[in-house]
Write a structure and sequence with these properties.
globular, 35% strand, 10 strands, 242 residues, alpha+beta
Length: 242
């Protein structure tokens, strides 16, 4: 059973059976090398049998910075990923590195399945969101409760935004979905957010409404020690052939 590639596709974030999510970042340097790396990934995976070890999907997105790649993979369990590393990963990476020398593999983090999500209702003719915004929030110590409470505070702020939109106080934001993962090491929350466009997200960040009391609580939450925001365009999603 070989891998099947779906160009420009996104992972099914609520796919049944997901027990672990692995998220990693590569730096490759230029937009041309981004595309070359995606092509090399597709070739390396399509030319081999799908590793039947609990890997459910593997998706790659291009950073709008022209440098990075985001890798998002869904597994039945963390042990399935460890088995893949031991038996299948090296030859794939060797082929990719031969095609695109000098890739910097920056970080790999492990997450539990989605903790909480919100998705805007879409019409049947509405296009899929154009970009993915990855928001990473880092916390002091493995206090999972504080991370869960912080996510609740974010949802309170989002609910207030939605109420303002319904009241026509501000135009529709362009956000299509927000999906929160908690890292298994206790130190990070990752929001896999879907947006209509990069411009829509930039305008939302510049919106004065984000200085509200609710968003102030988000940004100054106890234990929150840092964060990053990066935007990506879906490039490739791989899964097992039927």
């Amino acid at each position: 059973m070989n891998a099947v590639a779906h160009p420009d596709a996104r992972p099914d974030l609520h796919r049944p059976g997901v027990g672990a999510v692995l998220v990693s970042t590569w730096r490759v340097g230029t937009p041309e090398r981004q595309r070359a790396a995606v092509d090399a990934i597709r070739k390396a995976w399509e030319s081999r049998e799908w590793p039947d070890l609990g890997l459910l999907s593997y998706s790659v997105s291009l950073g709008t910075d022209g440098d990075t790649l985001l890798h998002y993979s869904q597994w039945t369990a963390e042990q399935a990923y460890e088995d893949f590393v031991r038996t299948y990963r090296d030859d794939r990476n060797a082929e990719i590195d031969a095609a695109v020398p000098g890739i910097e593999r920056v970080e790999l983090r492990r997450y539990a399945p989605i903790h909480r999500s919100a998705v805007r209702d879409r019409t049947g003719t509405e296009e899929l969101p154009g970009i993915v915004v990855i928001v990473e929030a880092d916390f002091e110590g493995p206090d999972a409760g504080s991370r869960e409470e912080w996510v609740d505070v974010v949802f309170t702020a989002l609910d207030e935004d939605a109420a303002d939109e319904d009241a026509a106080v501000r135009p529709r934001s362009g956000g299509a979905g927000a999906h929160f993962h908690l890292s298994t090491d206790g130190g990070r929350v990752l929001n896999y957010a879907e947006w209509e466009s990069e411009r829509a997200h930039e305008e939302w960040l510049a919106d004065e409404g984000r200085s509200s009391e609710a968003w102030t609580r988000v940004h100054h939450y106890p234990g929150l020690v840092g964060g990053r925001v990066k935007r990506y365009t879906p490039a490739l999603s791989l899964s097992a052939g039927v």
